[in-house]
């Protein structure tokens, strides 16, 4: 608890819940205030913080060295059975660090399609190949960047976005 209008520093040393699976997560901060004996939301959100990576052993670290940013913010539209390229800005690569991409297309009940390695293309323009069997609808696309150096790869960052999948005719293509 802090007094309004006074500077305050916050530290968080809580252990990570065991059920948090490995991956990249956006960290948010939320503030509430006590009004008339009740708590009400005051402010909250991403606060400009970098994502965190939860390692398979439960360790947590800031994302990096390779970082991804969406170039276009509109909801991407994909045609089932056709490859589509998503443009991303990539930072943190060098002569000794390269980036390898993978992607997952997810519905509420789990992963419906995925690709990694050479099948996904480069991190700056990953190729999303939605299989024909994927039904039209709304999904969530997650693109994961691995930093590769000295032959070793580690999860470095990820972007997640809502997407829609339709037929080629829905998207404006020809059959």
What does this protein look like?
This protein has 175 residues and is mainly beta. It has 1 helix and 14 strands; from the N terminus they run ββββββββββββββα. It has a 5-stranded mixed beta sheet with strand order 7-14-13-10-11. Strands 1-4-5 form a 3-stranded antiparallel beta sheet, with no helix packed on it. A hairpin with a 5-residue loop joins strand 4 and strand 5. The chain starts with 22 loop residues before the first strand and ends with a helix. The mean pLDDT is 86.
| Secondary-structure-derived class | mainly beta
Query: Based on DSSP secondary structure assignment, what is the total number of beta strands?
Result: 14
Task: Characterize the largest beta sheet: strand count, sense, and whether it forms a barrel.
Answer: 5 strands, mixed
Strand content: over 45%
What topology, given as strand order, has the largest sheet?
7-14-13-10-11
Low-confidence stretches: none
Tell me the Rg in angstroms.
20 Å
Instruction: State the share of residues found in helices, binned by percent.
Output: under 10%
Instruction: Label the overall shape.
Output: globular
Determine the number of helices (DSSP H or I, runs of at least 4 residues). 1
- Helix and strand element order: EEEEEEEEEEEEEEH
Q: Could you report the average pLDDT, rounded to the nearest whole number? A: 86
Report the span from N to C terminus.
Answer: 62 Å
List keywords for this structure.
globular; 14 strands; mainly beta; 175 residues; single chain
């Amino acid at each position: 608890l802090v007094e309004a209008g006074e500077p305050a520093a916050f530290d968080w040393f809580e252990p990570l819940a065991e059920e948090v699976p490995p991956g990249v997560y956006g960290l948010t901060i939320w503030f509430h205030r006590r009004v008339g004996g009740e708590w009400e939301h005051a402010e909250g959100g991403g606060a400009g913080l970098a994502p965190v990576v939860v390692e398979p052993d439960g360790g947590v670290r800031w994302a990096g060295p390779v970082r991804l940013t969406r170039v276009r913010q509109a909801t991407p539209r994909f045609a089932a059975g056709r490859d589509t390229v998503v443009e991303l800005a990539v930072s943190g690569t060098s002569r000794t660090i390269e980036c390898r991409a993978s992607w997952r297309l997810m519905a509420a009940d789990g992963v419906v399609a995925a690709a990694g390695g050479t099948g996904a293309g480069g991190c700056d323009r990953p190729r999303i190949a939605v299989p024909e069997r994927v039904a039209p609808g709304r999904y969530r696309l997650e693109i994961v960047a691995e930093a590769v150096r000295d032959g070793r790869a580690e999860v470095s960052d990820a972007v997640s976005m809502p997407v829609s999948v339709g037929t080629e005719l829905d998207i404006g293509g020809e059959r």
